[in-house]
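re: ur question from earlier - yeah i can do the single chain one, its not a big deal. heres the input i used so u can compare w yours
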Amino acid sequence: MKARRGPALLTLVHAGAAVVAVVCLAATLRTGLVERPAAIAFGLLITLGELARWTGATVREPAPLGAAGALSYALLGEHAGHHTRHGVAQVVSVVVVGALLGAVPHIARGRGPTSDQLARRVLTVGFTAVCFQPLWNQGVFARWSGPGYVLLLVGLLVLNALCDAVLAAALARSRTGWPFAPLLRDELRAMPGIGSAVVATGVVMALAVGVAGLWALPVFCLPLLLTQLSLRRRAAVRTTYRQTIASLARATEIAGYTPAGHARRVAVLSLAVGRDLGLSEPELTVLEHAALMHDIGQLSLLDPVPAGATAGLPAAEQRRIALLGGAVVRHTGVAAAVAVVVERQADPYREQPPAARIVRAVNAYEEKTRGAGPGGPLKALEELRLGTAGAYAPDVVEALARVLARDCLTPSAAG
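and the output i got, formated as tokens:
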């Protein structure tokens, strides 16, 4: 049932967005563009925003300027002091055409927007336009002025952001099978960052165009472009940081203490288990870094552990290696939380933080299935279940079983 429900929701959302786009485009083609200069200006702004699309893996809004321009046009009630007359259909049409034109170069390079992102953009902008344009054209908001009108626009954009967060979490839940609540929590936590900049820019541009005309667009989109640039630089620093950690993790493999790819396989599977258990994004980051560096303590050993398999060592020896690893991590300048996970991975699970429980169980599973035959994964899971009395957390082992059953994510596949 769960496997069928996910694709059904994806199909429904994508089909709904496609229907909305086609209907709006057909209506606009039939009636023609109203107030063509404004439509073309906002279309160009959205296209520019898509051309400046950011392809970072951890970015919630990859095209903030395009998003701000689309929302600003949906809330545009005046142009240089004159009431506008464009409606919902034209708003959606301009957004769709601008987004598609700006996405062409990215699609040609194989890094275009996903169908989920396009569907969310169409549905959320359409929702905002439906909330504002009909009432504006009927004169309902004509008596709103000053701070009250600004608060109205901000409220509509905040509602838009909340709807987008719910939709993004639902789509991610359908694609991955991860729990909905943690996905939604991470979406909401990301909103005060670039999301707040998009909302503020959308409101300011809508108000500024209403007073000063279309000349306000290049002036008020510049701060958002600078914000996007600074976030790109921050993401580049984080990428370099992660690459440094990955390089440190490979030290045990280069030195011959652990098999090639072991740390990466443990990190991939640990992240999948962490998401199944509902860890937040900051917790998942610590988990990934700790999983990559969980064996680094073996570099301090005079005699290497055969095949780097620590799960079968006596408990005291496991703790000694873990403490050595924690000390190494602390000297590398990596976050202290990562060192804590590394040095406590051999403790009884009731005394461990969640990330340490996950790393210990996943590492043991990877070691037990290494070189095993077709029945190796099932046998390894059974051994982990038998060890839940003190070594392995039962909820982690069951989450590992769910991940393997759902995604067929064996160590070989993970690599």
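The two ends are 29 Å apart (CA to CA). not sure if urs matches, ping me
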